[in-house]
Amino acid sequence: MKILFISHNRLGDAVLSTGLLAHLVRAYPEARLTIACGPAPAPLLRLAPNVDTVFVMEKAPLAGHWRRLWQQAVTQRWDLVVDLRASLLAWLLWSRQRKVLRPNAVSLHRVRHVAGVLNLPEPPPAPELWLRPEHEQAAGEHLPAGGPILALGPTANWGGKQWPIERFLHLARRLISPGGLLPGGRVAVFGGLNERTAAQPLLNGLPGDQLIDLIGRIDLPVVLACLARADCFIGNDSGLMHMAAAVQVPTLGLFGPSREELYAPWGDKAAFVRTDLGFDDIRNNPAYDYCCQDSWMDTLSIEKVETAVHALLTRARETAE
Question: pTM of the prediction?
Answer without folding.
Answer: 0.97
